[in-house]
Amino acid sequence: MTLHTAVLPGERRRATVFLHGLGSAGVAAFGTVAAGLDDRLRLLPDLLGFGDSADVATDGYTLDDHALAVARMLDQHELVGLDVVGHSMGGSIAIVLSRARPDLVRRLTVLEPNLLPFDGEASVEIAGQSEEDFATQGVTSLIARADAAWAETLRLADPVALHRSAVGLCVGPPDTTVLDILLASHVPRTLLYGSRTGEPTHTGRLRQAGVEVVEIPNAGHVMMADDPAAVIQLLR
């Protein structure tokens, strides 16, 4: 199992991995941000079932499955102690990775991750359809309604992988929630949200647990596209 991963050279001691959201791909989601951080090694994988990893063989698409695939990729590069940056579903995977493989995660920066079951419009819509209905009809409808950037990466995604990833995201980890994993983590943690999305429901609990919660002004859910300079500044 090998994820297709774009690798941008730089300092290994400041290595950063970027995990994209549902239906996206590594470079499409984080290419601009990664290019602005040219002082470090940067890895931009296409997650299981997406982008150029759409045909990677796997038994499942749960959050744990995705985290394990990322861990294997990082092991292949012989990396430990990375800054892990994840958007939406990628943020949830980053948080799960921090529990499964704490040796890999030095710092977490998550951009509007799904923290609780059924916490996300697109994933709930996709998971609410049967796998067969989504693969034959639903994905076509989703692409037709998506903005141009998301539609481009949705076309690359395997529809079954997209559906099963959405279901896995809605269900969450088997024994806890993504929120509770984030609250219990001991690494430096930052959660970014766009002002157009609004402050997370659990901001008080997050800050009490030591999570830095930061607003990106004039940005929505895809803040890397809305204001990449602000995201780059915060990652620095």
What do you see in this structure?
The model has no long low-confidence stretch (mean pLDDT 96). With 236 residues, the chain is an alpha/beta fold. Helix 3 (89-100) links the parallel strand 4 (82-87) and strand 5 (105-111). 47% of the residues are buried. Strands 1-3-2-4-5-6-7 form a seven-stranded mixed β-sheet, sandwiched between helices. The chain is built from eleven helices and seven strands. It starts with a strand and ends with a helix.
List keywords for this structure.
single chain; 236 residues; alpha/beta; seven-stranded mixed β-sheet; 11 helices; 15% strand
Instruction: Please state roughly what percent of the residues sit in beta strands, choosing from under 5%, 5-15%, 15-25%, 25-35%, 35-45% or over 45%.
Output: 15-25%
* Helix proportion range: 40-55%
User: What about the largest sheet?
Assistant: 7 strands, mixed
Distance between the termini: 32 Å
Number of helices: 11
What is the C-alpha radius of gyration, as a whole number of Å?
Answer: 16 Å
- Pairing-aware structural class of the strands and helices? alpha/beta
Order of helices and strands: EEHEHEHEHHHHHEHEHH
Unreliable residue stretches? none
Give the neighbour order of strands across the main sheet. 1-3-2-4-5-6-7
Overall number of strands: 7
- Overall form: globular
Mean pLDDT: 96
